[in-house]
Design a protein that fits this description.
5 helices; about 190 residues; binds fe (ii) ion; elongated; single chain; 12 strands; three-stranded antiparallel beta sheet; alpha+beta
Length: about 190
């Protein structure tokens, strides 16, 4: 994981803006040789240049540092595009409705790529009155367990944190739920459509 802006990111963003090294250099009052050095990994822009550099490239400093370009359109209709970010150090779980640069414990977290529930992570859905009773036949030991279950609908997310030695189960209001997610600390995120 990069901790500082990298040359390839500067180049990609600059070229995306159809800007020459010379044009970028002029905006920052540096030489085009300096820009060339940053882009080829022979030098770093001074920290005082980060803000103007991000501005010239049309992104935020955090995007520049992470190398991620965030572009969200019409977030209001995107609840079902929820993304989950899980910190491998402290176990923190963060949910975003759209794309974001999320960091925890000093690490930039990638969004979890969900896979369909598999044989080792069978998500079982039973309807009990107006709720889904969700269970998984999965270990719940300290080293290997389901650490959360979530039910995503078009208007919100129901989230239940689970713990080792507990049961891999949760109840969710059926109301408009489209997808159930289960996160295994070893194997990642799994989904099942209702
Ligand atoms: Fe697992």
């Amino acid at each position: 994981m990069d901790n500082y802006v990298t040359g390839s990111v500067i180049r990609r963003l600059r070229e995306g803006k159809r800007m020459t090294q010379e044009a970028l250099a002029q905006k920052l009052f540096v030489s085009s040789k300096a820009v060339s050095k940053w882009e080829t990994g022979q030098g770093f822009p001074d920290i005082s240049l980060l803000e103007p550099l991000a501005g010239a490239l049309g992104i935020s400093v955090i995007e520049l540092l992470s190398g991620e370009n965030i572009s969200n359109r019409n977030l209001s209709s995107n609840m079902t595009k929820s993304r989950f970010y899980v910190c491998p150090v402290c176990g923190n779980v963060i949910r975003a409705v759209g794309e974001a640069v999320i960091s925890c414990c000093g690490i930039t977290l990638p969004p979890q790529e969900a896979e369909p529930a598999d044989e080792a992570h069978p998500i079982r859905l039973d309807v009990v009155e107006d709720e889904y009773y969700v269970t998984l036949d999965h270990p719940m030991t300290k080293d290997h367990y389901i650490s959360f279950l979530a039910a995503v609908s078009d208007n919100g997310v129901q989230f239940v944190k689970l713990y080792p030695e507990g049961a891999a189960e949760a109840r969710f209001k059926i109301d408009r739920v489209k997808t159930i997610y289960a996160y295994c600390n070893r194997h990642g995120l799994f989904w099942k459509k209702r």
